[in-house]
Amino acid sequence: MAVTIKDLARETGLTAATISAYFNGASVRPYNREKIERAIDKLGYIRNDYARALRTHRSMTIGVLIPELSNMFFTGLVTEIEEALRLKRYGLIICDCRSDPSREREAVKFLQSKTVDGIIVMPATDSASSLMSAVDKRLPVVALDNYTESRSISHVVVNNRNAAKQATEQMLAQGHRKIAVIHGDEKLFTSRERLAGCRNAAAQADGVLIAEQGGNSVRGGYEAAKKALCEHPDLQGLFATNYEMSIGAAVALKECGKQIDENFAFTGFDCAKILPVLCPGMHMVLQPAHELGAVAAETLLAMIDGGPVRNIILNCRII
Questions:
Q1: Stated pTM of the model
Q2: pLDDT in tens, 208-263
Q3: Which domains does the chain have, with CATH numbers?
Q4: Is 171 exposed, middle or buried (0-12, 13-18, 19+ CB in 10 A)?
């Protein structure tokens, strides 16, 4: 016979309302939470989410659309989202869209068929067209790490332009006047904003900025850095503006025998655990990954409860 909430109530001595509050992600005293979880383990309780969804019109499931599961920055964000939502008793369905808007559109429809309560998306493009089937049905959607054109979607991003500007200004202030910036696809909001920040800093300081397209990939970063180093032997600095391209650029620097010292500077993006080992003395722009994931989750949960659309901008730091 299936174990019920009433069985858990008898085992714990708590009310059925308290146990329901636990399953609904509401605030429950730590001592009572422990009693409930011990009873769940002891009795082998398995929640019937299908029946619950029919009763409450909530599935306690969130869809997460990610451009590339192979990208460690994006998977790091998923980890932070999962941690924030798990504490509220929500589960995730994760879809890898391969940076393809058509796959993104298919994934949105798939998630709707699974009656998710909301969607967090790291959009493949600035367009919101692939998300409109969800928006039109008033399904809460939060775009993370990229802006879209829709005013019906909440956005959680960092101040990309200011972060890139500060990083470039720091290199210029150290006397590195000729800098190559390895940038991503300018179809993406984040790439455009970071490149604009670099250009703004160089123009204000009369520096020389060489822009190289890195294709948002390790190989792209490697090839762009190699090209800049070979064509400009008097280069004094290199700035790779995302995680994958930073790794590729670091490999190119090693192959070319470039040392990071008073004559040459290297700044990367979001690779604090890897790149400092390859390139001691480098600088790093760090996005607040934990805060980005947590704020995206909190914003979506607030929208599910009837809260407003919000646009939230967080700051990066340079280490």
A1: 0.83
A2: 999 999 988 999 999 999 999 999 999 999 999 999 999 999 999 999 999 899 99
A3: 5-47 (1.10.260.40), 60-152+289-318 (3.40.50.2300), 160-286 (3.40.50.2300)
A4: buried
